[in-house]
Design brief:
Length: about 70
């Protein structure tokens, strides 16, 4: 059984503990109180289009256990 870690900032899909997720490389998108987390590269892509980032990278990470 896997626990939900967070929900995707774009589509709201659950990101489970121990599963891969994506984040934005722009520092303003990684604030502790409201970080952006994405379930897929597609959602990150939508975020980049939405925020008009000039240069941004998609960083793949694994959701940590609490
Ligand atoms: Zn998503
Ligand atoms: Zn961003």
């Amino acid at each position: 059984m896997s626990e939900t870690w967070v929900r995707c900032s774009i589509c709201g899909k659950e990101i489970k503990v121990g599963s891969a997720f994506y984040r934005c490389s722009v520092s303003g998108c990684n604030r502790k109180n409201a970080p952006f987390r994405f379930c897929s590269v597609d959602c990150w892509d939508a975020h980049v289009a939405d925020k008009n980032h000039r240069s941004s990278e998609c960083i793949e990470e694994v959701a940590p256990a609490r």
